[in-house]
Amino acid sequence: MALGGTIALDNTVGAMEIAVLLAALLFGVLCVQAWTYTNDYQRDPWYIKALVALVFVGNLLHQVFLTHSLYIYTVTYYGDIKWISSIPWSFLALVGTSGCIAFIVQLFYIHRIFNLSKGMYSLPIFLAVVSLAEFVVNMYAVYKAKTITVYTDQYKLKPYLLAYNALGAFLDCLLAGSMIFFLMQSRTKFKRTNTMLTRLMVYCVTTGIFTSMAALLTIITLVIWDKTMIDQPFYFALPRLYGASLFGILNARNDIRNGTSNPTVPYSANEISLSLVTDQSQSYRPDISRR
Questions:
Q1: Global confidence as pTM
Q2: To 5 degrees, how large is the angle CA 11–CA 15–CA 102?
Q3: Which are the contacts of 134, defined by CB distance < 8 A and separation ≥ 6?
Q4: What's the angle, vertex CA 63, arms to CA 25 and CA 56, rounded to 5?
């Protein structure tokens, strides 16, 4: 469908509506995960609770900005070609928020890798540099987008958007691969410990595959349909996927340790070495005994 014979709505505003619905659905999943965390892990240290709160609030703001952008397009300036083809301030805000959420979660995983590597600095520093580069590219894309008055001119941002998503997919694969490598190095002769490590490796794979696939699909749609909004359902799902991966691995600690979905005794992050969220001063130990 075209509006006034100039703008096709199906692959622009229509695609954005799909993105908002998908993001809202995933935000609901995130709310359930956050509720589970607050109930089961009340003994976690303050900095883990602060991390969870920061990521959740970031996703909440992202959803608000995304919904506001859709409202501007479909209600406030409905039928106004000038506004439908422009980029509202909330759209720029949600892109910046998305980059911040990804950066925060990636730094958390980099810290886990540092703990697993028993103090190795070279790999975590390299991963941190890649994450920082991704963040800077995203913020620069937001800055450049301020000069664009027509959304169909977003192809001018194509190099930055492609670089951002390529760095994200590359880094997510590196993070998952690094954690799996160090977990394999931690295997022992004890079957129960190895079983826990295997479960944790599965979680590492799942935390990286969804964000990587979303980034790759964003790249593909940007390359093929660079003057549309078809990439938005994948791109705007990224903050939810990063949040879900963080909340998922935190909420899975009881299951990983006990091998059951109904643990009777909650354990805090510091009580389970395999949670990989201990202080840097604590060396990684695949000990499964309760302290």
A1: 0.81
A2: 130
A3: 99, 102, 103, 106, 164, 167, 168, 171
A4: 85
